[in-house]
Amino acid sequence: MKRIHRRPLDQRTLSFLTRRQVRVDAGQLVQQAWRTARSTRALNAVRDILRAMVGIRERCFFCEDSRGSDIEHFWPKALYPQHLFSWDNLLLVCATCNRLKGTRFPLDGAGIPLLINPTADDPWVFLFLDPATGNVVARIDPQTGLPMPRGAATVDPEILPLNIEAVTEGRVRTSRRLRASLDRFLVASVSAVAEQAALAALIQEVRDIDAQGVVSWFLLHDGRQLQPFRTMQTNHAQSWAALIASHS
Fold first, then answer.
1. What is the pLDDT of residues 129-151, one digit of tens each?
2. 43 with 91, same domain?
């Protein structure tokens, strides 16, 4: 799972969603409202923007493995019809994640969702990656010594399939490729001119990696303390800063 930046909707599509929500608020049945809206040009525009938000591979917002095919409601539409046509509530997910999550939507004592919304949260604030296995687990809260509740809820296999074999293998493969790319940069950077060329190659390689959030974990979070990332920070600080800027 990785942070996904939500794009703005055009005014025409946003107005369509607002009008449809007014009908639901007035008593229109949720299933009927969603079924009639799904075939409209406006919902196709919504789907296109959601796809563009995750890039050419159109990965699922949750598992980052399978192709996103379904418009999913973060706040489940059956339980929270007041969010049915809210743009901020719409995600693009694979069929597996959509079916598994369903109406499973744990809240804390204040009524705040425990699941991570990748368009509103940085998942790695709540999650920790084991690069050797590709598994993600809940980050430990340093104040309580316990797993963070939002991380624990998000990695619950009964809610989201974030640690199935296909996904964990992808994370391990990405971790390996990313480390190899940095190793090549370090070997090639024997002079200032060579370093600039190696940096350009490294930035392109990082962009090409199907990260599943892994790149962000290594560059912006805990993974930056591992090798060869620490060596690049220490010995090539300017190039490291350029790499971070290209990823942000």
1. 999 999 999 999 999 999 999 99
2. yes
Residues 47 and 68: their CA atoms lie apart, in Å, by: 10
Bond prior to 228 in cis (omega within 30° of 0): yes
Q: How many residues does the chain have?
A: 248
Alpha-carbon gap, residue 73 to 21, rounded angstroms: 14
**Predicted confidence band at 114 (pLDDT cuts at 50, 70, 90)?**
very high
Which domain range does residue 159 map to?
A: 123-164
Establish if 116 belongs to a structural domain.
Answer: no
Say whether pLDDT at 211 is over 80: no
Take residue 126 and report the two structure tokens written for it: 């709540």
Domain co-membership, 135 together with 97: no
For the entire predicted model, the pTM comes to 0.89
168-187 burial, b if ≥16 CB within 10 A, otherwise e? bebbbebbebbbebbeebbe
Amino acid identity at 1: M
